[in-house]
């Protein structure tokens, strides 16, 4: 395979030959080569362009200010946690993912399924106290059927939201990736019962053609006293 620059404006890079590659993979590679967020992530030392989604969400909602304990659900490859570590270097961060993740300084990374019965307990013990922020960039593996993919991802969001209500301190924040149309009405209603403000946002770093949105729930109201 060879990569050449076109003579058009901006020096757009194109894949000239792609032996053994599908048309879809060629399109993906060209998009990566010409994506300014991908280039910026490499320059800034972030593991993925997704880091800028969190940066842009924080610029709008300000949920990283002063956090001391953070849980990152679906941490792989680690871009969101890198942002947290840079903006809040003293914060304790615990992440979980099915996929292996290269170590990040001063971050506890658990390689296990968040939907395992033991996962909430293990995360809570590793964090060592109530969280200020629960992040979830989790998405179910897609099967190509839009409704099924949506339902599977929303199940993860709901599980993440439930976990957030179990580990967040009063006033804490839950940020999660959802799909086109945002969170389902039942989930939004549940979040509004537990948080003072619930907003949807699509940060500029999220590709326009992507179906992903984010829900930001701030001001956790706290758990009922026993």
Automatic annotation (TrEMBL):
Boundaries of every Ribosomal RNA methyltransferase FtsJ domain copy: 46-220
EC number(s) per entry: 2.1.1.166
Single GO MF descriptor: methyltransferase activity
Catalytic activity field: uridine(2552) in 23S rRNA + S-adenosyl-L-methionine = 2'-O-methyluridine(2552) in 23S rRNA + S-adenosyl-L-homocysteine + H(+)
Active site feature: 177
Protein's cellular compartments: Cytoplasm
GO biological process per UniProt: methylation
Keywords linked to the UniProt accession: Cytoplasm, Methyltransferase, rRNA processing, S-adenosyl-L-methionine, Transferase
Designated name of the protein: Ribosomal RNA large subunit methyltransferase E
Organism: Sphingomonas abietis
Gene that this polypeptide is encoded by: rlmE
């Amino acid at each position: 395979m060879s990569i050449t620059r076109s003579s058009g404006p901006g020096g757009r890079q194109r894949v000239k030959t792609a032996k053994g590659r599908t048309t879809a993979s060629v399109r993906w590679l060209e998009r990566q080569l010409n994506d300014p967020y991908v280039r910026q992530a490499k320059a800034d030392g972030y593991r993925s362009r997704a880091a800028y989604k969190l940066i842009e969400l924080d610029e709008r909602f300000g949920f990283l200010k002063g956090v001391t304990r953070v849980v990152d659900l679906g941490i792989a490859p680690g871009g969101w946690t890198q942002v947290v570590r840079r903006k809040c270097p003293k914060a304790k961060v615990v992440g979980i993912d099915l996929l292996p993740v290269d170590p990040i300084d001063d971050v506890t990374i658990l390689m296990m399924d968040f939907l395992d019965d033991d996962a909430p307990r293990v995360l809570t013990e590793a964090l060592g106290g109530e969280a200020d922020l629960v992040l979830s960039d989790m998405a179910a593996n897609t099967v190509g059927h839009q409704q099924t993919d949506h339902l599977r991802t929303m199940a993860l969001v709901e599980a993440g939201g439930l976990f957030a209500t179990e580990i967040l301190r009063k006033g804490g924040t839950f940020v999660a990736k959802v799909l086109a149309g945002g969170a389902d009405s039942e989930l939004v209603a549940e979040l509004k019962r537990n948080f003072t403000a619930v907003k949807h946002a699509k940060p500029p770093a999220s590709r326009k053609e992507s179906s992903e949105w984010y829900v930001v729930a701030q001001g956790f109201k706290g758990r009922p006293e026993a």
